[in-house]
Amino acid sequence: MSLDSLKALEGSLDHGLPFANQESRSLHIAPPLHEPTPEVRAIPKASIAQQDVLLFLRALPGESVDLIVTDPAYSGMNQHLLLGKGRIVGNYQEKEGNRWFEEFHDTPENYGQFLSECRRVLKNDRHLFLMFDSFSMLSLGALVRDFFNVKNIITWDKVNIGMGHYFRRQTEFILFASKGKRPVTRRDIPDIWKIKRLHRASYPTQKPVELFEAMIASSKAEGDTDFVVCDPFVGSGSAAIAALRQGSRFVGCDTSEKAVSLSRKRVKAFLKTGIDIEQEKPAFDEAIQKKFW
Ligand SMILES: C[S@@+](CC[C@H](N)C(=O)[O-])C[C@H]1O[C@@H](n2cnc3c(N)ncnc32)[C@H](O)[C@@H]1O
After folding, report:
1. How confident is the model at residue 200 (pLDDT cuts 50, 70, 90)?
2. CATH code given to domain 3-292
């Protein structure tokens, strides 16, 4: 898919929201690190394609995005969460036949191709935030070192306990890596992020917008006026809303029709009204936000 076709995507979501009044959490003031290229300027405010991650990334021009924040559908996790006679913990198996959505076949070969494409589309001196559950972290996390400089692993503390077999899960991980050199926007951000998990969300693996906002705010400097965020496993579109809230543009994809239609609807409503119809309540409670941010 070329940038022209990306622009022309049905559901191309450019409604021209002015960002001047949007609050930025980043305190770091720096001059722009790169002038945007014509290809990057051509990406609309938000564009979500229904496509496989590898096909989607391969069609993006090299060095065309400023930040990748993503939460892949790991197949390894569900294999490890099978209980007794094959019941999967959580609600991934409801709806649409047996599953809500297809998983990405995260063999080391596929995962290597995914990482190599992420590296190609990311500009130099830029960051990657890659979410992992503990099983995928064990099997695939080390591969990231073949493509990026791994800087840290952030623990997402969901505040409330979740499901789980042998110790109930309250955390997930976010691998933080760079292509080249780039500082984070603040030096006082801890590597444990307390952000409440969502209850009763429309999409089964929907993450709080604040989680992606924290990633973007710690990478996007105030001088980065034309910043493009990419999430190629977009799901409900939480990363897209986070990008728009942080005054960035967004490009992403998902194979699931349901995800694409939900995330496009969500982004359109946000661009029109400034309201996030899928997460009206903030996931940061004030006490936590004061400590963290
Ligand atoms: C963990 S969910 C992402 C949830 C998202 N972060 C949110 O907050 O709603 C992973 C998504 O990857 C999608 N997916 C699975 N295989 C894919 C593939 N090969 N290419 C692109 N997306 C895929 C699934 O449909 C699912 O929506």
Report:
1. confident
2. 3.40.50.150
